[in-house]
Specification:
Elements: H1 3-14, H2 18-24, E1 28-31, E2 34-37, E3 40-42, E4 45-47, E5 59-63, E6 69-71, E7 77-82, E8 86-87, E9 89-91, E10 96-104, E11 112-113, E12 119-120, E13 134-141, E14 146-152
Parallel strand pairs: 5-7, 6-9, 7-10, 8-11, 12-14
Antiparallel strand pairs: 1-2, 3-4, 10-13, 13-14
Length: about 150
């Protein structure tokens, strides 16, 4: 699958358009073991100034403890196993859309609190509490404000 097709698939999966994703990229990208730096020509479609493109790779942020620190510079898609009631700190490398998959440990019933100032989109952020339960938290960071919406895996 070409880089353009992968970026288009990613854009469709997160509900964004390819122009907004391409506009957000600048510097270099690693995809399937290949590194792309600078301007790229994708079958006549120019991809200019790539910064970071991590497509499909989920970074394992480990176990939560009580105060997990999630740094999205490690990847825009991360997973965290909840091993205690957690109050998180989040670091974003820049404006964009980021995803955190929370997984309850075998005990379950762990809570997760976003940093103060995070704004819920739609309903209040809610996580699945059953042992092994999964919740996706989608963050939109505009450079100033963090917005979050949640979805529990059924």
């Amino acid at each position: 699958m070409s880089l353009q097709a992968r970026i288009t698939a990613l854009a469709e999966a997160i509900g964004a358009d390819i122009k907004s994703i391409l506009a957000a990229l600048a510097g270099k990208a690693s995809l399937g073991g290949n590194t792309y730096a600078g301007d790229q020509d994708l079958d006549g479609n120019r991809l200019l100034g790539i910064k970071v493109a991590a497509l499909g790779a989920e970074y394992d942020a480990g176990s939560s403890g009580a105060t997990p620190a999630i740094d999205f510079a490690n990847g825009s898609l991360q997973r965290l196993t909840l091993t205690a009631n957690a109050s998180a700190t989040l670091t974003f490398p820049g404006p964009g859309t980021y995803t955190l998959r929370l997984i309850q440990d075998a005990t379950g019933n762990r809570t997760f609190a976003n940093p103060v100032g995070t704004k819920a989109v739609g309903a209040a952020v809610s996580i699945k509490l059953t042992a092994g339960g999964e919740t996706f938290l989608i963050y939109k960071y505009n450079g100033t404000t963090v917005y979050c919406m949640s979805g529990q895996v059924q």
